[in-house]
Design goal:
Blueprint (H helix, E strand, L loop, with lengths): L1 E6 L2 H17 L4 E6 L1 H4 L4 E5 L8 H6 L1 H18 L3 E5 L2 H13 L3 E5 L11 H8 L2 E4 L3 H8 L5 E2 L3 H11 L10 E5 L4 H18 L5 E6 L5 H11 L4 E4 L2 H10 L3 E5 L2 H8 L4 E4 L4 H10 L7 H6 L6 E2 L5 H13 L1 H14 L6 H10 L1
Parallel strand pairs: 1-2, 1-4, 2-3, 4-5, 5-6, 6-7, 8-9, 8-11, 9-10, 11-12, 12-13
Helix pairs in contact: 1-17, 4-5, 5-6, 9-15
């Protein structure tokens, strides 16, 4: 059997790689082709395209790069047509992947989708397109099954990969990176968002840090140490840059009573599952913010707030400044008990007993 995986950003790349590894373990004769990132490349598949050139977020930002994005969509269609896979497995990233799913379906290729578009939070109209082109939908939040079923899109809950990964990490009894209070900086995975957020995050952290506190940046895969050091030098900032140890950093922040400054995305959920108090920020275009709030009626952007359906975490989305971040950090201590209580609610929602990589891989081949 020939399978074609398409992931469009860092977390999707990681999730796809885990499924691929499980497939290679149980069905080593399966041919696997991929569009993704570093983790998929490590699986020694036939790798065709890296996401780092095409991961663009925001309505206005996408419009500005629409020709570039369309070019990549056409290239992906060409690769699907040339390879003629038995099944295509899309990982999240609906803006890019849904047009490709429609294309694959028209070719008679079986379409699998892992990590559903968050239609329950915004853009419910996408479900109509999903019904037309997705044969098997695998969701990572239990309540999504009822949501999609009611809209005529059957789905299967396969467990939450972030909750599973955190539970596995904690079960291995890790040693902390430091004994000093750690301020964790998770400034995103895309170059543009890191350029915007990292200096402001570190400036705010330095204002709040005591003499022995450590400011540690969880560096994103696909970016380089030189990239981060250039930002620090340009803004005359000091922080420790660490690659490949996001969980270690969050674990250390937890046990040393630290906190985190986090770019909106999967990292907010990871931080919550480690019970680290956090402030969420994302520098979006003013028009993007207006569209999201007033047209799409988006209430929250962080996964924690979306899942709880209430403002557990403060979100700073427009005109992010060190001063705004510092004020939010001050309020973390005031709201500490409430935040920890809500974090425990998240654990209850995301039961990590179900292993996504096993369930998805077996479903793909069934």
């Amino acid at each position: 059997m020939k399978l074609f995986f398409i992931a469009g950003e860092a977390s999707g790349d990681v999730h796809a790689a885990k499924i691929i590894q499980q497939l290679q373990k149980t069905h080593p004769d399966t041919t696997i082709i991929g569009w993704g990132g570093d983790e998929m490349q490590k699986c020694n598949i036939r790798f065709l395209s890296h996401y780092k050139n095409r991961n663009i977020m925001g309505f206005v930002e996408v419009i500005k790069k629409i020709r570039t994005i369309n070019g990549y969509i056409q290239q992906a269609k060409s690769d699907i047509l040339t390879e003629k896979p038995d099944k295509v497995i899309f990982i999240d990233n609906p803006g890019f992947n849904l047009p490709l799913a429609k294309f694959a379906k028209k070719l008679g290729i079986e379409v699998h989708w892992y990590i559903a578009p968050k239609a329950w939070a915004w853009n419910k109209s996408r479900v109509k397109t999903m019904r037309q082109c997705i044969d098997h939908l695998y969701v990572i939040f239990p309540f999504e099954v009822d949501f999609f079923n009611k809209l005529g899109m059957p789905s299967k809950y396969v467990g939450n990969p972030t909750a599973e990964a955190v539970q596995l990490f904690l079960s291995e009894n890790p040693e902390p990176l430091s004994k000093h209070k750690t301020i964790a900086i998770l400034a995103g995975s895309r170059p543009n968002e890191v350029l915007k957020l990292l200096p402001k995050f570190i400036m705010a952290a330095q204002k709040m840090a005591s003499e022995n506190d450590e400011i540690v940046v969880a560096a994103a895969p696909g970016l380089t140490n030189e990239f981060y050091q250039t930002i620090l030098t340009e803004h005359n900032l000091k922080a420790t840059i660490v690659f490949g140890k996001t969980f270690d950093i969050l674990y250390t922040a937890h046990i040393t009573n630290g906190f985190a400054l986090v770019a909106s995305g999967t990292a907010t959920l990871e931080t919550a599952l480690f019970h680290v108090p956090q402030v969420v920020a994302y520098e979006v275009n003013a028009l993007t913010y207006f569209i999201a709030k007033n047209i799409l009626k988006v209430k929250y952007v962080s996964l924690v707030n979306i899942l709880l359906n209430e403002p557990c975490l403060e979100e700073i989305l427009v005109d992010v400044t060190p001063e705004k971040l510092t004020a939010s950090i001050h309020r973390l201590e005031q709201n500490a008990d409430t935040i920890q209580h809500k974090y425990r609610e998240l654990h209850a929602i995301l039961n990590s007993d179900i292993k996504p990589s096993i369930h998805v891989s077996s479903s793909i081949l069934s």
